[in-house]
Design a protein that fits this description.
Layout lengths: L7 H6 L1 H9 L5 H10 L1 H22 L2 E5 L3 E7 L3 E9 L9 H10 L5 E9 L4 H10 L3 E3 L2 H11 L1
Antiparallel strand pairs: 1-2, 1-5, 2-3, 3-4
Helix pairs in contact: 3-4, 4-6
Amino acid sequence: MKYTRLTKEQFEELHPEFVNFLATQSIDKTEWDKIKEEQPQVAEQELDVFSDLIWEGVLTRAEYLEHFSKNYIFLFHCKETHVHSIVLKALNPEIDFLTKDGLQWLSDNMFTENVEMKVGNKEFTEERNASIFQLIQQGAFLSDGQLYKQIISIIEA
């Protein structure tokens, strides 16, 4: 596998797509049930191939990622050959960005000496989608980029 297998919940959510995936291989429900029963390793391979196809599509379309931790927020804009990042760090160790109060504090202190902000670019050292997947494995999640866009527009103003 190139990525990771989808969770049971993700498979349930993508059931219609999985049925279509099997249909492209001339596998109907009866045949699928038979494969699961008689050739579980083949069924496992089909689940893995489908998972990789889904991940590949999601990662190809991925444009913005966010990763929140107690004192840091990482905002990523994924381009074709590199990722542009904004890293926000609360210099007050009591601040917790994982809480509503922490985010309100950030809003009030964004451009003060209480918040360290670093902006940078990093070239993808491996294939783009694999690099984005690594960020997700480390805790980042896909976003609409609203926070990134707000901050970058202020920085560039």
